[in-house]
Amino acid sequence: MATISIKLDTRRKNKNGEYPIVYSISHQSVSCTIPSGISIKESECQGKPQKMVRSIVANADTINKDLYELLLSYQSKLSILEKEGKANKMTASEIKHYILTDSTPKDKMSFTEYAQKHVERYTGRTKSTYEYTLKLVDRFFNGNVVFFNDITAGVLHSMDDEWSKTMGLAARSIQFRNIRTIINRAIDDEITEKYPFRTFKIKEGRKEKNYLPVEQFKQLRELKFDASSSLLELARDLFLLSFYLCGVNLNDIFVWKKDVMKKNKITFVRKKIAHHEPDSITISVQPEAMAIIKKYEGNEYLLNIAEQYNHNYINFNGYMTHRIKKIGKAIDFPELTMYYARYSWATYADQLGIDEKVISKSLGHTDQSVAGRHYISYDWSRTDDANRKVIDYVLAQ
After folding, report:
1. What interhelical angle do 381-395 and 214-221 show, nearest 10?
2. Model confidence over 70-79: pLDDT tens digits?
3. d(C-alpha 53, C-alpha 67), whole Å
4. 84-106 pLDDT, tens per residue?
5. How far is CA 342 from CA 10, 209, 313, in A?
6. Spatial distance between the Cα atoms of 162 and 184, rounded to a whole number of angstroms
7. Which residue among 159, 174, 243, 298 has the highest number of C-beta atoms inside a 10 angstrom radius?
């Protein structure tokens, strides 16, 4: 009797350290698999048909629902074969072909379906960016289902021509990078072998590099607040804390539990790139940063902001964005955002002659070189030395 189940295929590990979730067909002592398009780490797998993915994965409920509904669909088709007495006359591969005939044309998952599954792995701004890209692709193909074979270099050039009518170069490069990421992940998951970016090269727009001038950084640091301006003071302090920790993002600070800091060192993985399984970042907490941490010390969390704002980062970020704009106006720098803490740290470090690799590692960028990813162990004391130089530089002004 043929059976179909869902499992994590631990025989195949992609470059992100993830294993594909597959539907396994077993028949007459032979098995074959149907890819789900989803890959996760072994620690993220719960292993139950209705709950394959643990809740630690973003949008786990949606992913589990989709995986289980597809399993039921496949089992329903297999049940029809069994009732009609056809299954015993077929091989496992023939059963797989039958199951896929109606559900995924060309025996492949479509780009449309795979991309939607891919996007569910993200949250926040990153997810919104991918969703916008998929809307543009859907509009370009007039709402039709898109297959990987449909996305050729010629089609990408046509997209570029079409999108150039309403988007600048930098915006278009974001869309094409998102498409490329989806295709790369699909190749890793053995959904497709098509890679149109061998001949289509993404044009990169020059991004303006903004930072807070040192004089206005000093003004921001020395701002005084009364009791009625506690949120303004919090926004300013979080800006400074981000800066004192090499430009760490606010969404990382928000979720840090107390155990992220041990022996005055903070070790974490950036939320933005956590799905790529990068190395963790280790930053020594300088006295200036420690003073802010102590000021807003939480119970379970390193800072009390997550506990006070009901663990709702989106709402909290909205409050801080509004207040940091007010602070920007107070120091005659109206374009100020939290990201300027990151931009400014990197710019000051560069002005001080700090090695570009040290700056990149300190910011939490993933090393793209083979040696950097697999063989070289970075000395985080180099980051600590650089950070101290940058902090001393701005405090001396």
Report:
1. 80
2. 899 889 888 8
3. 9
4. 888 888 888 888 878 876 544 34
5. 38, 11, 19
6. 24
7. 243
